[in-house]
Amino acid sequence: MRQPLTREAIARAARQILVSEGLHAVSLRRVASMLGVTAPALYAHVADKRDLLQGIVGQEFDLLIERFRGVEANGPIEQLEAQCRAYVDHALQNEDLFRAMFLFRPELTGEQQGDEPALINRLVDELRTTMQAAQAEHRLDAANLDLAALTLWSAVHGVVITLLAGPPMQIELRAALADSAIGAALTGLRHGAGARAA
Q1: Cβ distance 152 to 190 under 8 Å?
Q2: pLDDT, tens digit, for every residue of 135-183?
Q3: pTM for this one?
Q4: Right CATH number for 56-190 from 1.10.357.10, 2.40.50.180, 3.40.50.2300, 1.10.10.10?
Q5: What is the pLDDT of residues 23-68, one digit of tens each?
Q6: What is the pLDDT of residues 107-120, one digit of tens each?
C-alpha cells in the first residue's frame, strides 16, 4: 500500500536520489517515478525543483541540528568542540548533501523561509546558545556572541571545504586538521580574540 504523498515523503525520496545518484539526477519527474505517482501530483506539495531541493536541505538541517543537540559533553566548551566535530563528521558522511546545501545552491541555506529564519541562522543559533552557557560559567570571553558564533562556524566550515576540495590527505591528517582548527578557534574565542565587534 502506497504511503500518503506529503512534502516530507517527497523530500526523503529526493534525498535518496541525491545520495545514490548525485544532485544532477534529482528532478520532479524522477521523484514522482520513485514514489509511483505522476509529476503533476507533486505540485500540491512542492512548487518546483528549487522548492524540492529546499525540502531536502531543510530535512538535512533538521538532522544536523538534532545531532548538535544530541552531543554529550562535560561542559559548554567541550560541547562546542563536540558540536564542531559533529558538523565535520556530518558533512564528510554526506558529501553530496553538504555540497547541495552549501556549494551548488548556497542560497537555499541563506534565505529566510516565510516566518522561519534562514537555515544557516538556525545552525549558528545553536552555537550561540552553547556559547551563552560557556559565558555564564566564565569560560568564554565574548562581547559579541553573534560574531563569536559566526567566527566559530566560519572556522569549522572552512575545514570542511578544505577537506572536500583541498589536496588529498591521509585520514590522520584530516582528523588533525579538524582538531587543530577547532582548537585554535575556541582558544581565540575563550580569550576574546575574534569575538569583539570592531
Answers
A1: no
A2: 999 888 888 999 999 999 999 999 999 998 878 899 999 999 999 999 9
A3: 0.83
A4: 1.10.357.10
A5: 889 999 999 999 999 999 999 999 998 888 888 888 888 888 999 9
A6: 666 666 667 777 88
Which CATH code of 3.40.50.150, 1.10.10.60, 3.40.50.2000, 2.40.10.410 fits the domain covering 1-46? 1.10.10.60
The answer to whether the beta carbons of residues 105 and 53 sit under 8 Å apart is yes
Q: How far apart are CA 90 and CA 198, in angstroms?
A: 33
Angle 176-182-186 from CA coordinates, rounded to 5°: 145
